[in-house]
Amino acid sequence: MSVHTQAKRISVPQLMGYKGQRKIAALTAYSAPFARLLDDALDMILIGDSTAMVGYALPDTLSITVEQMAAHAGAVVRSTSHACIIVDMPFGSYQESPQQAFSNAAGMLAASGADGIKMEGGVALADTTRFLVERGIPVLAHVGLMPQYVNTMGGFKAQGMNDESAERILRDAKAHEEAGAFAVVLEGIAEPLGRRITEALAIPTIGIGASPACDGQILVTEDILGLSGARIPKFAKQFADVGSVIRTAVEQYAQDVRDEQFPQLEHCFGVKK
Asked: How far is it, in rounded angstroms, from Cα 264 to Cα 267?
């Protein structure tokens, strides 16, 4: 006789059920220490390909690999028990064909234990979403400003600012909904468009620089904690200046070492009291 236990971690169907009920709170995480701190408060944690820029100081998100993303995702999964964990598909790991996307997505989920993947792209990638979902891989779509398309978009520029662009992004979102995506990230788009897409879709929308009307919000954790340097994106809000706390602590540590105040005998082994 099998023993059934109720899973504590929020599932993909639960996230979908929050549509119209309550907002979805999500942030990024790339390492175990951050993931442990975020877990209890959030509905979803994303191991974003922003790992490339935030974690590796790369100029964009294009060069991070499947293996790197799977390793970071595994660290986040192992150090959490509550939030639904989604991992980004890196650039070049899914655009070639649905079969390529399935192989890489399945490999990342198997290696990390994450609950689903996120994939950037418009109507052209909807068939890939359908292919993955039909084979058991939950897909979080991502439309609007898509960092992996930075070269074709001409930089990190707000999207949907005219009627033609807005209609295209609406079609992108609807195509992924029809293909079976469980939710869609709306990044860097005109506020009225974010509101319009949220009202048009039966699946949740998760905004990042979109609209307060979105069914949820996601930000890069380092942006809200003051760990991203002097420039904070327009769509982000800094909720704490953790950077200054870290700097003060490190300065105090360095001074104590130089002043021979640390370590003391209490920090050593084999010392008789």
From this structure: 6
pTM value is: 0.93
Q: Is residue 190 part of a domain?
A: yes
- Residue ranges of E strands in 89-239: 116-120, 139-144, 183-187, 205-208, 216-219
- What's the rounded Cα separation, in Å, for the pair 144 and 147? 9
pLDDT by 10s per residue, the chain, length 273:
444 444 589 999 999 999 999 999 999 999 999 999 999 999 999 999 999 989 999 988 889 999 999 999 999 999 999 999 999 999 999 999 999 999 999 999 999 999 999 999 999 999 999 999 999 999 999 999 998 887 777 667 889 999 999 999 999 999 999 999 999 999 999 999 999 999 999 999 999 999 999 999 999 999 999 998 767 788 899 999 999 999 999 999 999 999 999 999 999 999 987
CATH of the domain at 117: 3.20.20.60
Helices 163-179, 191-200: inter-axial angle, 10-degree rounding = 30
Catalytic residue status for 187? yes
Give a yes or no: residue 126 inside a domain.
Answer: yes
With respect to residue 186, please indicate whether it lies within any of the assigned structural domains. Answer: yes
Active-site position among 120, 177, 187, 222:
187
Domains in the chain: how many in total? 1
For the chain, counts of helices (H) and of strands (E): 11, 8
Print the domain residue range for 91: 12-241
Structure tokens at 57: 């100081």
